[in-house]
Design a protein that fits this description.
Blueprint lengths: L1 E2 L8 E2 L2 H12 L19 E4 L2 E4 L8 H4 L13 H10 L6 E3 L5 E3 H4 L19 E3 L2 E3 L7 H7 L4 E9 L11 E12 L8 H9 L8 E3 L18 H33 L2 H6 L4 E9 L2 E11 L2 E11 L1 H6 L5 E9 H9 L12 H4 L23 E8 L8 H4 L8 H12 L3 E11 L6 E9 L8 H19 L2 E2 L1
Parallel strand pairs: 5-9, 11-12
Antiparallel strand pairs: 1-2, 3-4, 6-8, 7-8, 9-10, 10-15, 12-13, 13-14, 14-15, 16-18, 16-19, 17-18
Helix pairs in contact: 1-14, 3-10, 6-7, 13-14
């Protein structure tokens, strides 16, 4: 028995060798016996009933039951939840925009990918990245899955969408398979004025926006033929006007959010307060996004460092045309609400957003206090305990149909992360690769991952952690075909 260096006083854990011996004993494996060949994932039922609708499953189905439990939670609609407070704060800067906050998370492949001209071979379409209900239906991976439908409905000259989105991803303090996005767009229509005066109409609308005292760095030209091209359907004057309106609109959001955050930080009397009491600065960085051109990322200087806040740009004309609006021009932006909320409320771990502990939720019952917002005060810090899992990656030749079923991909880290989440849920703080090598003679690849177990509301017992770790090893062997070392 070994003392775990990361656990609290007296906490004990079994050595990795002891855990491997116990695993092999329970599974009838000797050192020289290879792991049994596996399926890519557990065999799904023939159908899934989600939100009252039944869907037939097929070889693309890869949604584990634990992910489906998140669909009814809708954190962005819980009045005093920090995700909802962040949404409300952003919406307050767009009082005339129509809001869509309760759209179904179940969308078609066409809505999520095809309507946005996502290339057929783009990695985001892979089963390693996206949760599929079946080959034609999935859980949305971004709020933009609704963009074409809303453009087509044409109910307002401006709209905002907030929603829960789903992606297979890493296990750490800033990533979670369910998170929330907010996106917005502002539209102008050439049919509503002389087409030569669209830019003039945009400039007139710009004058109606509030002015601010931000320090703004924006040294690059609006368009660049190689890095930020002008769309052939737009004039330079139109692109200039729409880009300026977009940037002023987003800068006003930054003023609202970070001014409140600064007051809360100064009131907290923490070490970060001193770094917060400085002029608010932003900078526009040219970027590439598949839905806009020209495009930018906005970075904010906050507590001594530059932080990326959102992406935005002039909407592609072909997306509007495919949505039945060929005479319209628009700008659009999108951001992750968790990222903003973690900055604003000083929340250190993304798992906390899903906590039902009154010590967490009770801190935000006052909502958006006048002039500021309350920063999170940690209520406990329970000990961590890490355990390693080392295994041989299955050879590509031995994968057969399993590899073919996921686009010819062999081992993928997201598959391992998904198994850890299915087995241990929120009891794992992070998972990271700590070692890998290729055997020169056997030509086999070995990987070692460190799993850090830590509960947010209690101290975990060694017996519980050991059982979770053994269950993870079992699932890795059964579902991924790895051979535990």
């Amino acid at each position: 028995m070994l003392i775990c260096p990361e656990c609290g006083a007296g906490a004990v854990r079994q050595s990795s060798k002891a855990l491997r011996r116990l695993y092999k004993t329970q599974n009838g494996l000797s050192k020289k016996q290879p792991a049994q060949h596996r399926l890519y994932s557990s065999i799904p039922p023939s159908s899934l009933t989600i939100n009252g609708t039944t869907y037939q499953t097929d070889s693309h189905t890869n949604i584990p039951p634990n992910i489906l439990t998140y669909l009814p939670k809708k954190l962005h609609l819980q009045p005093h939840h920090p995700i909802s407070l962040t949404r409300q704060l952003i919406e307050s800067r767009f009082p005339t925009f129509k809001t869509y906050n309760d759209l179904s998370p179940i969308v078609s492949v066409h809505q999520n990918f095809d309507s946005l001209a996502t290339p057929p071979d783009h990695i985001s379409r892979s089963k390693t990245d996206t949760y599929y209900i079946n080959r034609s239906t999935l859980l949305r991976t971004h709020t933009s899955a609704h963009e074409a439908d809303i453009f087509r409905a044409n109910e307002s000259s401006g709209y905002l969408i907030s929603a829960d989105v789903y992606r297979r991803d890493a296990v750490d303090k800033t990533h979670y398979p369910v998170f929330h996005q907010l996106e917005g767009a502002r539209v102008w229509d050439r049919r509503k004025q002389d087409s030569a005066n669209v830019a003039k109409a945009v400039w007139e609308d710009l004058e109606k926006l509030p002015r601010h005292e931000l320090i703004v760095s924006d040294p690059n030209p609006t368009v660049h033929p190689q890095t930020n091209p002008l769309q052939p359907e737009h004039t330079l004057e139109e692109a200039e006007a729409i880009s300026t309106h977009l940037k002023r609109s987003i800068e006003n959001v930054v003023v609202e959010i970070f001014s409140r955050a600064r007051l809360a930080a100064l009131a907290s009397s923490t070490a970060a307060a001193a770094a917060t009491n400085e002029p608010l600065q932003v900078r526009w960085v040219p970027a590439y996004f598949p839905f806009t051109s020209p495009s930018w990322e906005l970075e904010v200087h906050w507590q001594g460092q530059w932080l990326e806040v959102l992406g935005c740009g002039v909407s592609l004309h072909r997306l509007l045309a495919h949505a039945g609006q060929p005479t319209q021009l628009a700008w659009a932006f999108g951001m992750g609400l968790e990222r903003i909320a973690m900055l604003l409320f000083d929340i250190p771990d993304i798992r906390l957003f899903w906590s039902e502990d009154a010590r967490f939720l009770g801190q935000f019952r006052e909502g958006l206090a006048e002039g500021g917002m309350r920063r999170f005060v940690p209520f406990s810090k329970h000990p961590a305990c890490y355990k390693d899992v080392s295994f041989w990656v299955p050879e590509r030749e031995r994968e057969g149909a399993a590899a073919e079923g996921r686009g010819g991909v062999g081992f993928h880290e997201n598959d391992l992360m998904e198994i850890v989440r299915m087995v241990a849920g929120n009891l794992v703080e992070d998972v990271r690769l700590v070692d890998e090598f290729k055997h020169p003679r056997k030509r086999r690849e070995s990987k070692c991952y460190r799993i850090n177990y830590r509960s947010m509301d209690k101290t975990l017992e060694n017996e519980q952690i050991n059982q979770l770790h053994l269950d993870i090893c079992n699932r890795l062997t059964q579902d991924m075909g790895v051979e535990i070392r």
